[in-house]
């Protein structure tokens, strides 16, 4: 009885909400009422409301901490493992954005090229068993949800419909920080012809909320910019500063000298990847890199577009994905503070590689080197 009444109510409700949507993506789909009462553009979106709430409460726990960082890194390590050129030669090259990192949790996570992803993988596995979604969709969705805990983050798109991985990708498809720019750009283009050098720069906005545990084996959680808990443009400014030393040992593969090497246990100094250094200065990418400095909105929008492209790598029928972006939460806060030079630094410390006018920025006050922000949460 109660069920029947509910069913009638549900069908009436879905009639009531079947109004045309303003967004072009939703224009052809009427809204549906999910079993849990949420309104979605398509029934395929329904499981993601409960998954979202579970992730926010039990994985990301209100901070832009390690779990959010890891979730954003995982979309890269899952998606990039695909090669169009190998596929053309008939060699199996993985499924791209297929969730293979979760479906075979003991394989890719143990490869040197993926050093550091295992915590992210282990953190997401319980959500795969609790929710009726594929591993591939979970990886993409978790990043879109997790990044909203980082002030300054954009609201990423989320589409569902990726099948589960059926096999692990071969090794050797994940770029290394020791690779040169030509190799890195070629690797992205081979994964998806849609990904341009500009998109690669945009994707590196992710290193604004990042730290390294494995580049220098002696020190952990060493951030790439002075504000690892904020999705801001400091990364693009700071990577252009002259390097003066290392936060830990010198001579690590994939690491070059940093402008802010001074560290303490709580504030470990800044670490610079050789790949970020080189992409910031390469003629193919330097102007896009520079354009993001102090231009939060440009960086955010470019990141949304590039992540969407990366999330379709290797998919056989990307046109069949269903847009569930409405389920993605609003980011917690905007960044309103302009980019600034760390204390003691100014334009004289910039190694400018793009001939266009450099933005005019203030320097943080203080007579000693800025100590970088430590990691929040666990
Ligand atoms: C040019 C290609 C890239 C290279 C060579 C690269 C390299 C690295 C390295 C070496 C680390 C440190 C890992 C560790 O030692 O713990 C790292 C961290 C990270 N990367 Fe990348 N990366 C690249 C592209 C990307 C992309 C496309 C994304 C996502 C859109 C991404 C997101 C992250 C994040 C969020 C972290 C921090 C993880 C944490 O704090 O736990 N990276 N990256
Ligand atoms: C995808 O794989 C995971 C892990 O093996 C499993 O829990 C889930 O039920 C699978 N989903 C589908 C739709 O096959
Ligand atoms: C780093 O490597 C260079 C060349 O291989 C060597 O000359 C130098 O002593 C090394 N520095 C350290 C601190 O190990």
TrEMBL record:
Enzyme class: oxidoreductase
Site feature: Transition state stabilizer: 73
Plant heme peroxidase family profile domain mapped to chain residues: 72-328
Protein's UniProt keywords contain Secreted: no
Protein name: Peroxidase
Active site: 77 (proton acceptor)
CDD domains: ligninase (cd00692)
Necessary cofactors: heme b; Ca(2+)
Record flagged with keyword 4Fe-4S: no
Keywords: Calcium, Disulfide bond, Glycoprotein, Heme, Iron, Metal-binding, Oxidoreductase, Peroxidase, Signal
Gene Ontology biological-process entries: cellular response to oxidative stress; hydrogen peroxide catabolic process; response to reactive oxygen species
């Amino acid at each position: 009885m109660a069920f029947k009444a509910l069913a009638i109510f549900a069908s009436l409700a879905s009639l009531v909400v079947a109004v045309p949507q303003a967004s072009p993506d939703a224009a052809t789909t009427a809204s549906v009422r999910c079993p849990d009462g949420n309104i979605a553009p398509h029934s395929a979106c329904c499981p993601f409301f409960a998954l979202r709430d579970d992730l926010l409460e039990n994985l990301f726990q209100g901070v832009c901490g390690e779990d959010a960082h890891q979730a954003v890194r995982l979309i890269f390590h899952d998606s990039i493992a695909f090669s169009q050129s190998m596929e053309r030669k008939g060699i199996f090259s993985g499924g791209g954005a297929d969730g293979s990192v979760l479906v075979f949790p003991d394989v890719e996570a143990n490869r040197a090229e993926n050093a550091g992803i295992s915590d992210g993988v282990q953190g997401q596995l319980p959500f795969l068993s609790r929710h009726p979604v594929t591993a591939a969709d979970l990886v993409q969705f978790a990043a879109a949800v997790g990044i909203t805990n980082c002030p300054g983050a954009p609201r990423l798109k989320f589409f569902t419909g990726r099948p589960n991985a059926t096999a692990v990708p071969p090794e050797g498809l994940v770029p290394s920080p020791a690779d040169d720019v030509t190799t890195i750009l070629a690797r992205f283009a081979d994964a998806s012809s849609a990904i341009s050098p500009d998109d690669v720069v945009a994707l590196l906005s992710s290193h604004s909320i990042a730290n390294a545990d494995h580049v220098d084996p002696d020190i952990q959680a060493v951030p790439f910019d002075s504000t690892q808990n904020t999705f801001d443009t400091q990364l693009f400014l700071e990577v252009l500063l002259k390097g003066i030393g290392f936060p830990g040992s010198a001579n690590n593969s994939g690491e070059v000298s940093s402008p802010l090497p001074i560290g303490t246990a709580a504030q470990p100094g800044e670490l610079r990847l050789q790949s970020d250094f080189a992409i910031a200065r390469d003629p193919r990418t330097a102007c896009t890199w520079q354009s993001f400095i102090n231009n939060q909105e440009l960086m955010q929008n470019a990141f949304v577009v590039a992540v969407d492209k990366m999330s379709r790598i290797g998919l056989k029928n990307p046109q069949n994905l269903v847009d569930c972006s409405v389920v993605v939460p609003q980011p917690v806060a905007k960044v309103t503070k302009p980019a600034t030079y760390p204390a003691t630094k100014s334009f004289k410390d910039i190694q400018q590689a793009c001939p266009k006018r450099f933005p005019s920025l203030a320097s943080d006050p203080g007579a000693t080197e800025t100590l970088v922000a430590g990691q929040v949460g666990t």
